[in-house]
């Protein structure tokens, strides 16, 4: 079965071209060809079609084999180039081969043409596969390089002597641009056992080891790096070095230390707080801590109430009362946990372990991971309030009695006053009447005297 072959023939003689084509057919090829004999024609043919092989004469009136070879190299097209000529010597053929021609064949001995073409086509196919593989590898390498550059963690490679041989972008940013070629210990800060810890890795006994190490950043600041080190081996299983991923955890460690110190202070405050403190976790409110005031106030220990579910029936044994406050409390708590907020204080009556009752004002706040409940004992205040209430009621009764007594006395005074007023009015009228009578008597006496004088 004939094999398709796209051939670009650089030749000025049509007869010679026909001889070449006949030889190719004799070798089992079915050639598709085009003849050119100038630089412009060859350039146009290279641009318009993909060729399997180029066969070129060495000497032509308007072109040459070496010029054709230079044009092909200039366009950077990888196509086998074979010189077929009868007018050059071995020295010129050698020069052509050095310039990039794959082979040289004399026109009067074309028996080598087909084997040479078959060989060059196989080599061209091999070069193409290698080129594709190299491009794929280069693309993959660039991709990995981009990924590693985008990774915020430090990635460093050391050889068997613990000398840095490679770093990603984050590594250069931390250690500086001159890190390659320096020993890892150059950046150690203070006495440390890092090499001792990773020694099993370099001895081939471990594949991965974690180590924390204080190291010097390029600006001179001392930073704590958390390293995950993985062993590197060659095809024979021999250790060649290690690839390590590091993360700056200085701020995290400082934050944890501050948190531990804060928790320590809070725990000290909680231990001496007058409030009953109950700390739980999650929506199920699993008990994680109760302070001494809680136990002193109610008598219950952590073993008595491992969860809130255990708290409800012992603290609120009356079912109706428990159902009423539990529903309200759970609704408020659920909202507080979801919004990481607190609730308004809620006053309840708690039954203690010894059966006594206490008035408690509960407050609740959720921090997300932990839920804190604070209880304020209102029992003393409630007793005072009840005493004050009784005293006020007693005072009100006394005021009412005194008021009634005063009202009674006031009414008696008013009655007496009315009597005195009436007597005064009668006396006044009596005096007036007496005066009138005296006046009449006086008038009568005067009249009698007047009558005596007349007589």
Describe this structure in words.
It is built from 12 helices and 15 strands. A 5-stranded parallel β-sheet has the order 2-1-3-4-5, with helices on both faces. Strands 7-6-10-9-8 form a 5-stranded antiparallel β-sheet. Strands 12-11-15-14-13 form a 5-stranded antiparallel β-sheet, sandwiched between helices. It folds into 3 domains: about 140 residues, Response regulator (Rossmann fold); about 100 residues, Beta-Lactamase (2-Layer Sandwich); about 100 residues, PAS domain (Beta-Lactamase, 2-Layer Sandwich), CATH 3.30.450.20. It is of the alpha/beta class and about 450 residues long. The model has no long low-confidence stretch (mean pLDDT about 85). Helix 1 links the parallel strand 1 and strand 2.
What descriptors fit this protein?
Rossmann fold, 12 helices, Beta-Lactamase, 51% helix, 455 residues, 15 strands, five-stranded parallel beta sheet, five-stranded antiparallel beta sheet, elongated
CATH hierarchy, class of the largest domain: Alpha Beta
CATH homologous superfamily heading of the largest domain? Response regulator
Named at the architecture level, the CATH assignment of the largest domain is 3-Layer(aba) Sandwich
Number of helices: 12
GO biological process, one term: regulation of DNA-templated transcription
Coiled coil: 107-134, 381-447
GO molecular function: kinase activity
Keywords: Coiled coil, Kinase, Phosphoprotein, Transferase
